[in-house]
Amino acid sequence: MTDLNIKNLSYVDNFKHSVVGNFVNFSTRASRSEYWRFTAVTVVIGFVFSLLRFIFGNTFLGSLFNLLSFAYTCAIFLPSIGIAVRRLHDINKSGWFLLLPFIPIIGLVYVIYLLAKPGDVGDNQYGSPTSYEVITAEEAARTGLKETPSESMDQKAMIACLCLWVLNIWISFLAL
After folding, report:
1. Any residues with CB less than 8 A from the CB of 157 and at least 6 apart, and which?
2. If you ran DSSP here, which 8-state letter would residue 121 be given?
3. Angle CA(50)–CA(41)–CA(148) in degrees, nearest 5?
4. How many Å apart are CA 7 and CA 17, to the nearest integer?
5. So what's the pLDDT on residue 94?
6. Residues 61-77 pLDDT 10s
7. Of the candidates 141, 138, 137, 120, which has an alpha carbon nearest to the alpha carbon of residue 129?
């Protein structure tokens, strides 16, 4: 198998690598595509759980999906914090900026802006920028990894994440 730390991974492969191999790393940098690929998978899974909880309501299955959603949220908590801290490091900001959403509305909007901002081109106090090798179709066939998504696909995923997140909040309020 290839060294995953130098590969530009697909959405699912990136998610697996962030959760299993890189979940408590709070000291290096994470590229914008690495962060948003992880977030895209996380938001889709969370949205599916919310939709299932909403559909099944106050039934046994609804309670089961609620429990599974809680377990998933607990399991993904540290990897989510870790990759967000590394993403902020990529733009030369401290991980403590993740506390800004506690300032109503403005703090959350500013943190989303920071997470969507392109990373520093050169070295900063958190290290060198992450530069990944693209996984071509040939390498994907050889290694079993998926071919690397394009940058425009990552931008669309970023917008879709934000829309699904808002829809998820709306569904949660409807379920109350």
Report:
1. 11, 36, 37, 40, 149
2. S
3. 160
4. 11
5. 94
6. 989 998 999 999 999 99
7. 120
Give every CB contact of residue 158 below 8 A, 6+ residues apart in sequence: 36, 39, 40, 116
| Cα angle for residues 140, 146, 150 (degrees, 5° grid) | 105
For every residue of 15-45, DSSP letters joined together read: HHIIIIISTT--SS---HHHHHHHHHHHHHH
Residues in the chain: 176
- Here the tokens at position 104 are 């109503």
Output DSSP code: residue 124.
B
The whole-angstrom separation of Cα 32 and Cα 118 is 6
**Which tens digits make up the pLDDT trace of 84-101?**
999 999 999 999 999 999
Cα–Cα distance, 66 to 56 (Å, whole number)? 10
Round to the nearest angstrom and report the end-to-end CA distance of the chain: 47
Nearest CA-CA partner of 136 in 16, 7, 30:
7
Could you give the 3-state DSSP secondary structure of residue 127? strand
Phi and psi at residue 8, to the nearest 5°: -90, 100
Encoded tokens for 31: 């590229």
Unique residue bearing structure tokens 């998504």: 149
